[in-house]
Design goal:
The protein is α+β, with helices and mostly antiparallel strands. It is built from four helices and six strands. It has a domain at 19-111. 25% of the residues lie in helices and 20% in strands. Strand 3 and strand 4 form a beta hairpin. Keywords: Hydrolase. It comes from uncultured sulfur-oxidizing bacterium. This is Sulfate thioesterase/sulfate thiohydrolase.
């Protein structure tokens, strides 16, 4: 994210998966007797978390958030890790795991698409959103620019 968050704007932030730190934590958990190791990795692509799972042995599950990769099943990486147990906001995930003998014996996994037009808005929340947005409506509705061709969003 160096382009979206240049160092000069966020001098005390750091980005990236710290593989060595993850490896130390996994080793510490296993040597402490952990039967299951779950790693939570925010905002990464499935290729990044699969790479982490392949390079750090001992992780049973990688929970991720804010992914755009809506996969109908988790990705199995080697013998240890089930990757992609998570999506944020538009496609929450329901999963249930059976843990037995230092690992996951079985699991169920289901994506639950959220269709905004199929959910009845909560009146109190809608009123709060309106109250917060109302003073800014003119600015939020202002046309800033116009394109002469079709733009695509990645």
């Amino acid at each position: 994210t160096p382009i979206a968050n240049p160092r000069w704007m966020v001098p005390n932030w750091s980005f990236g998966i710290r593989e060595e730190a993850v490896r130390r934590q996994v080793d510490e958990a296993r040597s402490g007797g952990a039967d299951l190791v779950v790693s939570a990795v925010p905002r990464t692509a499935s290729t990044s978390t699969a790479k982490l799972a392949s390079r750090v042995p001992g992780i049973d599950v990688i929970l991720t958030a804010h992914s755009h990769d809506a996969l109908p099943f988790p990705i199995k990486v080697g013998e240890d890790a089930a990757d992609r147990f998570g999506l944020a906001r538009k496609i929450p995930l329901a999963t249930r795991s059976e843990v037995r003998e230092r690992g996951i014996a079985d699991y169920s996994y289901a994506l639950i698409p959220v269709l905004a037009d199929a959910i009845e808005p909560d009146p109190d929340m809608a009123a709060l959103v309106h109250k917060i947005r109302e003073p800014h409506e003119a600015m939020l509705g202002a046309e800033l620019a116009r394109t002469e061709s079709l733009l695509y969003r990645r």
